[in-house]
Design brief:
The chain has two domains: 154 residues; 30 residues. α2 packs antiparallel against α3, α2 packs parallel to α5 and α3 runs antiparallel to α5. It has 201 residues and is an all-alpha fold.
């Protein structure tokens, strides 16, 4: 069901959701010791940072006719400029991180070396964390300066009370293991040579 919101209200609610996603990911980020987990988290952070940049462009478009929004953009500008040093985030997100890794024209597998590098997209975990922190701070500036608009949007969206989505899907580690064990039994029954997939068996 669509909500009767202004462009600014829609933008603020979208930015607020992104802020929450980023903060949830950043909370454990600095204490993750394993490099593989850091790389996975960095990929997620970069996807969110790109989403922030897209939403920030929408906010920037509104600033042409609104002095308060222009001031918000001005205050957040150093943070946003730091993110936009990396010119290849959109391409990285679309061709590597969020979709199948094929060149859309040739349908050949992409060469990752073409998407990472100075000015394109960062390889370092801590750079991804920095960009995510910049996005969180920029969003916080917008939410703080336009709090009344966001609160009005919340009253419209939640007019009938909190939105509740019934739980669905596997809900425990035990159920997960039971499902995977069943898959394993069926696979090995049909093709015993696949036992090499399960060296601990």
């Amino acid at each position: 069901m669509p909500f009767d919101l202004t462009r600014l209200q829609k933008c603020l609610m979208s930015l607020s959701a992104l802020k929450r996603f980023l903060e949830d990911a950043l909370r454990p980020a600095k204490s993750i010791p394993r490099q593989d987990l850091r790389e996975s988290l960095a990929s997620y952070l970069l996807i969110c940072v790109h989403s922030f940049d897209q939403e920030w462009k929408r906010l920037s478009g509104m600033g042409k006719d609104d002095a308060e929004i222009r001031r918000t953009l001005e205050l957040a500008s150093p943070l946003v400029k730091r993110i936009r040093r990396w010119k290849g985030l959109a391409k990285l997100r679309s061709r590597v991180l969020a979709h199948e890794p094929y060149d859309k024209d040739s349908m050949e597998l992409v060469d990752l070396r073409e998407y990472f590098g100075e000015g394109k997209a960062p390889t370092e975990f801590w750079e991804a964390v920095l960009l995510a922190e910049c996005a969180v701070w920029a969003i916080a500036i917008a939410i703080t300066r336009h709090e009344a608009e966001q609160e009005a949007a919340k009253r419209i969206i939640y007019a009938d009370g909190p939105h509740r989505i019934p739980p669905c899907g596997v809900s425990s580690e035990e159920d997960l293991q039971a499902e995977m064990d069943a898959f394993k039994r069926d696979l090995l029954s049909d093709s015993p040579d696949l036992a090499v997939m399960f060296p601990a068996s």
